[in-house]
Amino acid sequence: MSRLPGRVCFNIHLLSGRSEFVSLPESGTFADLKEAAQRVFKLGFLQLCTADGSFLDLRMMVQDAGPELRDLYAARISPHLAATQNAFALGSPIADAIFHYIMYDFSLQLRAYLDDAGHTAFVRSRLQMEVDMIIWSDDLAVPIVTATAAELLPALLDMLTFVKREFAARGFRINLAKGKTGIVATFCGTGAADIRRLFQLIPQPGIMHQFEEGDTQFVHMTPTYRHLGTLYTSDQQLDAEIASRIGIAVSAFEQLRRGLLANRHLPQRLRLQLFRSLVLSKLYFAAGTWHTPTGRQCDRLRAALARMLRKMLGPTNRGLSGPQLLASADVQEPRVHIAMERLLYAQRVFHHGPAFLQLMLHSEASQCPCSWLEGLRYDLAWLHGVEATADPILIATDLTALIDYWQRDPGRWKHRIRRAGIRHLFQECLYQCPDCPRWFTTPQGVSTHRRKAHGVYCPEHHLLDSATCPACLTYLWSTQRLQQHLAYMPKDGSPNACFAYLQTIGYAVTYSAEHLPQALTGQSRRDALPVAGPHGCGSTATDRRLAALVSERDTLAAEYFEYMQPDSVLDAGARLGDLLTSVTRRWYHDFVQASYCFEDVERPQDRWIDVICKLPSAYESWTARVFILWGRHVLPDLLAELLDGEAEAYLDREYADLVNDFDEYQMEERLRKLDRLIWQATLRPEAPEPHRPVRPPQENARPRSLPQLEVVRLFDKQEQWQQDLGRVRWEDMPQDPFVPLVPGLAPRPTFIIVHLFAGRRRDTDFHAWLDQWAERWNVTLTILSLDTAISPVLGNLDCRSETWQKIQELYLQGLVAATLSGHPCETFSSARWTPPPEGHPEHKWPRPLRTAMQLFGLDHRTFREMRQTRMGTAFFLQTLWTFACHLAYGGFFIEEHPGTPQQAVHPSIWKSSIMKVIRQHPDVRFHEIGQWDHIAFPGSTGGVVTWGASQGGFSSEQFRALGAPLRQLMATQSAFGALAENGRVVTWGEDMDGGDSDDVQDQLVDVQQLAATSRAFAAILADGSVVAWGNPSLGGDVSNVAERLKGVTQIAASSGAFAAMAEGGVVTWGRAGDGGDSSAVESQLMTVTEVIASQCAFAAVKADGTVVAWGNPHHGGMIPEELRDTLMGVQDLAATDFAFAAICGEQRSVVTWGSPHYGGDSSEVQDQLKEVREIRSNKGSFVAILADGSVVSWGHKGHGADSSEVRDQLQQVEKIASSSNAFCALLRDGSVVSWGRGSEADTRLVSGQLVGVLDVCASAQAFAAITKEGRVVTWGRPESGGDCRSVQEQIRYL
C-alpha cells in the first residue's frame, strides 16, 4: 500500500471492517524477517560487485538513489568502503535500494500467489474492494478472507508456507518467534466457536505446522499485533489501541513532568503548549485513521487526560471534574479532537492518497453503517455547526465539491479546523452531578462519578466477585461482562433468570473485580465458557428462612408447654379468677371513696400480685397463664360493668404493665408471631419482577458499544433542552420565609437591598424613592449598587469576579431582603431583527444573536458576537440565581427587562423555559408595565374592542376567528379569554397566564362557560366535562380530578384554585392554600346550589340554605361557630379578597365573616343592613344596595368603604361596578357617582360627558361607561384603560 505519513494498516482495517459486517472470516498475517540487516549486507555486496550487467533493475534503482550511491556504483565499491558497517545498514541509501528491489520482486510473486489461490477474486466479488499487502522494510502484512471459518486457518498456513519458501529463495528467513510473526484471525460463522476454543482461547494460542522442508514450527496466533506503530486487533475495536496510546502518552508525560510540564517557574500557557506538542501528539497518533470510538472509549481517553492535567496544573485546579479541567486547560474533548484529526486526514487522503484507498473508503461506506466515511460526515456536520459562516458543501450528500476544494486549497483547510476547535471550546457547557457541584460532559460521566464518589452502584453490585455467574456457572472472562449478563433484560418483559434466582436464594458477596486476561485483549468474540453441571439448585432464601422459623417455633413450643399445674386445673383456675375479680372490685370501691384519686389507693397491680404470690411457687408458670387468660376474658366484662372511663383506663394500663413482665406472655406472643411468619412463608411466592426496566426493541442490542458517530455539541441541543424544561412542574413548594432582616448592622432595623446593573445615580431614581420609604417607616436600608459605570472593579459582576463571589455569600446566608435587576438586554433586543437600510452593508449591521428557542446563541456568529451573547446569557442566569435565592430564603425580586415581543421567533427572557417554570410558582407575579391592564367592551355586533396596552390586545383577526357574536369575556391577571355564541374560545395575552390555549384548542369545542383564576382558565363543555389551561399550579391542570368532573354546571375561581359544581358534589383543584383542597368538608358539599370565592377561599350555599366554607381561614375559609346559627336561609353571597357577606332570611339581613379589616366585620352598619337587594364588592370593601335604592358600605377605607361624602347622591342606584380600590354607581336617571381611592374615583374631568349612561364596567384601576348615543367615556389610570382615545373610532358606535 502507498502509505501516508503516520497512517498505517488503514486498508487492512477497512477490509476487516467490511468482512466482519458481512460475517466473513478474515485474518491479517504479519511476518518479520530474521537477521535482515546482515543478509542485506551480504546480498548487496555480492550483487554490486557483479560486472556482467545481470542486475539491470538494481542498477537503475541505484541511479535513482542519489549522487553518493551513483559514485559508489561507478567505482564498483572500493574495498575499504565496502568493508564499513554503515554502507549496507538498514536505512542507508544502498540498503534501501537493495532491499526495495528484493521486496518488489517478492511482492510480484506474492500477488501472483494470491491471484492463483483465488483470494483476490474472492475479495473483489464478495466485498467489491481491492486488497493489497503492506511491505515496509523487513515487515510484511497480508490480509486473507475466506467464505467459512473452517477454510481460514488452512489458507493462512498455506500462504505462510509460500512466504517462507519465497523468502528462503532470496536468502532470508522468517522470524517465527512470539511477537515477530503472528496471525491475527477473526473467525465467524458456522463452527467458529469451536475453532476459537481450539486455537485462540487457550493459554498458548497458535498451531504447530509442518513446512515443506519438513521442519515443524509453532505458528503463533494473537489477538493483537503492533505493526508500524499501530495495533491491529481481531475484534476490529479501538480498545487495545487506545490503551496502548494512553500508556505511551503517560510514559512520555512522566518523563517530562518534573523538569518541564509541572515546572511552576514556566508559564502555564507554555507548559500547556508543550503538553499538546509532546504528549497529545503521542496520545492521538494516527487518530485520523481510527474508526469512530465508542462512548466508553472516549471516557477512557478523557480520564487519562484529566489525570495528567491534574498532575501538571497542581492544586490550583483542585475540585474540578475531568471535563471542567479539560475546559480550563483549553484541551479538546477526545471525540472533538478525533473529529479534527479525521478532518485533516481526510483532506490528505483525497488530495494525494492512492486511488485504491479512496475506492475502498467509498466501498466500505456503501455497506457498513458505521464506516469511516460515515464518521467523517458527522465530523463535517459538527464543523458546519461550529463555523461562523455556514458552508453548504460540508453537509452536502455528494462529497465531490468538498474533495475539489481539498485538492485546490489544502492550507486553508488546516486553518479552518484549528479555528473550529477554538470556537467549540468557547460554546460548550456541562452536566452537573446531582449530589455535588462537579460537572461532566456526558450523562455517563455523571453516572461513573456517582458510583465512584457517592457509592451509587448498579442493582447487580452485590452479586459480583468474579467472572463466573453463580447461577448458571458460565465463565464470562471479566466481572464487567458478568454484570452485563446479570443486567440483561429479555425483550418479552420477563425477569433475568440468573438475577432472579440469586435474589431468591439470598446470594450476596463483597464486590471484587476480575479483569480480562491481558493475553486476550483485542480478541474478537470471547465466547462464554459454560461449566458442566446443573443450573443453581441450592435452597432458596425463603426455604432457609422457613426452616429457621419452624425450628425456633418447635423449640419455643416445647419450652412453653413444659410447666406444672394443679390436679383439678379447671376448678383451681376458676377460683383464682374469682379472687382476682374480687380484689379488682374492692380496688374500684376504694378508688371511688378516695374521690377518684389514683395515687391515694393501693395500685391494682400490687393487689393482683398479692393474690398470685399466695399460691405455691411450683405453680408460678401456671398462675401467670391463668392471670393472662383472666385479663383477656373476664376483665373486659368487669370494666363494662363499672361504667367509669377513668377507672377503665387505669385498670387497662395496670394489666398491660404486669403481663408484659411475664415470660409466659412474651413466649406466647412470640409463638403467635412465629405462626404468622410461617404461614406467610408457606404462601406461594409471587413471580419475580424485572429488576430493571425492559428496554424498547433496538436494531442493535449493544448501543453503547456502537461508535459515537455524532460529535456532541450541547450548544446544538438548546431547543430540546427548552422543551424538556417546559414540562417541569412544581410539586413541593418551599415555605414562605420572612423578608431577611439583618440585626446589629445599624441602630434601627436594617434591610440589605442589592441593585444589580444599577447604572449611575439620578436625583429621582429608585434609590431616592427607597430613601423616602425608609424614612417614613423608620428603617435603615443598605443598598449595594453594582455596575461598572459606578466602579470598574467593585461593580464588576462577571461570575468570576471577587465582587460576585462576595454577593453570592450574602444571598446564600439569607441576608438580602430585595434585589432590583436590569441586566443588559442588548443581545435580546428585537431591534436586531430589523433589516439594514437599502444600500447599507449587511456585515456592518447588527444581526440576531438568539431566537426564542435558541436562547443561548445561534450558530455561525463571529467571535465578537459570541462573546456578547455569552456575557448577556451569563448575566441573565446570574439574576435568575438571585431570584431562586429569594424564593428559598425570602425577600423580593424585581427584574426590569423589555416586554414579551409579538413575534414568536424573537428572543425574550420571559419566553425562556426556565423563566416559565419559575413563573409557575404561586408567589411569583409577572407585570408588564402598561401592558396587562385592559378594558374590554362587547361591541354592538358581538365583537370586542380592547385598549390600555400595546400588547395583549385583541386583534380583529382573532375576533374573526371566533366566527360568531361574543357570549362571555373573562380575564386572568394578564390574559383574556373570549367565548363566542358558537362555543369557540379565543385567548390572548401572557402565555403562562392562559393567553396561549393552543395545547387544548382541539378540546375547546361547544364551550358553555369560562372561569378564571389569577393565572389560569377553565371551560365547561356541553357534555359537562371541564378543560383547563394556564399555570398548572394555579388551576391550569385538571388531570388529577378529570374523572370526577362530570355534569359540571358552574365553576367558581379564587386566586389560585377552581371549584366546580358536578354530579357528585363540588370538585376542587389548584393550590391547596387557595381552596384547591376541599377534602375536610367534602362530605358536606353534596347538595350545593351556588359557590363563590374570595382571594384564597370558597363558600358554598346548600339547598337547605346553610353555608359551607373552606380554604385559607384568613380569607373567610372558616365560619366562626357563633355565626352558624345565623347563617340560615342564605339567598345570596358576595366576597372581597379576604371576607364573605351573605344575605339571609326573609328580612334579607347580612352576615359577614373573614378578615374584619376587609369587610368581615359589619357590626358598625349592621342596623342598616335590612331589606338588602344585592351586594357588590371589590378587593377590600362591600357595598349593599337596599330595596329603596340607597347604599351602605363597609370594609377597608382604602378600598371605598367610606361613602359618606357621596351618600346624599347615592339614591335610586341601579347598578354598581367596582375597580380594585373604588366603586362606581349608575343611578336610575343615567348619572354616575364614584368614590374610593385612586384616579378612577374622580369623575370631574369627564362629568360633562356622563349623561344618559346605560352601563358601566371596570378594570383594575379604571372605569368605562356607555351612553345612550353609543359613546364610551373612560376615566382612571391610562395604563389600566382610563384613556380610550387611541381606539375612539373603533368604539364610536358600540
UniProtKB/TrEMBL annotation:
UniProt cross-references to SUPFAM superfamilies, sorted A to Z: RCC1/BLIP-II (SSF50985)
Start and end residues of each C2H2-type domain: 431-459
UniProt entry keywords in alphabetical sequence: Metal-binding, Zinc, Zinc-finger
InterPro entries on file: Ran_GTPase-activating, RCC1/BLIP-II, Znf_C2H2_type
UniProt xrefs under Pfam families: RCC1_2
Molecular functions (GO terms): zinc ion binding
Domain of life of the organism encoding this protein: Eukaryota
Stated name of the protein: C2H2-type domain-containing protein
Origin species: Cladocopium goreaui
Lineage: Eukaryota, Sar, Alveolata, Dinophyceae, Suessiales
